């Protein structure tokens, strides 16, 4: 899904293509400006956007093998939230549609965390069982 597809998906919920595009642009603008300024943007249940400073380091040119100095830089980082991870791991738990349905289906933060932790434990057990087989 690209930005145009996202606008199309939100068009029916927001009430028009222009309103959907403006809403997406506004959200992206706020996130980009806050992260660029060194802040964090945390959206409960979705994730956190933040700025990470990478130190200067020495790399290698893969073609020549020559050492190359790589300057320090700042990059954006996204860490998905517990509910987002749970929905990706268990798509069948996704609510039908709409923000009110999502909140009702997700339950309290403690319930979401508990379900996510149970899913993580189950996945680890499956991986461990697969290695021992």
UniProtKB/TrEMBL annotation:
Pfam families: Bac_DNA_binding. Signal peptide: none annotated. Belongs to the bacterial histone-like protein family. One of its GO terms (biological process) is chromosome condensation. GO terms for cellular component: cytosol. It comes from Dermatophilus congolensis. This is Histone-like protein. The keyword Mitochondrion does not apply.
């Amino acid at each position: 899904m690209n930005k145009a597809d996202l606008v199309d998906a939100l068009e029916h919920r927001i009430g028009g293509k222009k309103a959907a595009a403006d809403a997406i642009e506004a959200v992206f603008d706020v996130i980009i400006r806050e992260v660029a300024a060194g802040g964090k943007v945390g959206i409960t249940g979705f994730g956190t956007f933040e700025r990470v400073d990478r130190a200067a380091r020495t790399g290698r040119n893969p073609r020549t093998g020559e050492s190359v100095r790589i300057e320090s830089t700042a990059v954006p980082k996204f860490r998905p939230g517990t509910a987002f991870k749970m929905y990706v791991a268990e798509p069948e738990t996704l609510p039908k549609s709409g923000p009110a349905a999502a909140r009702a289906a997700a339950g309290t933060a403690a319930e979401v965390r508990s379900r996510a932790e149970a899913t993580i434990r189950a996945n680890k057990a499956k991986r461990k069982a697969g290695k021992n087989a």
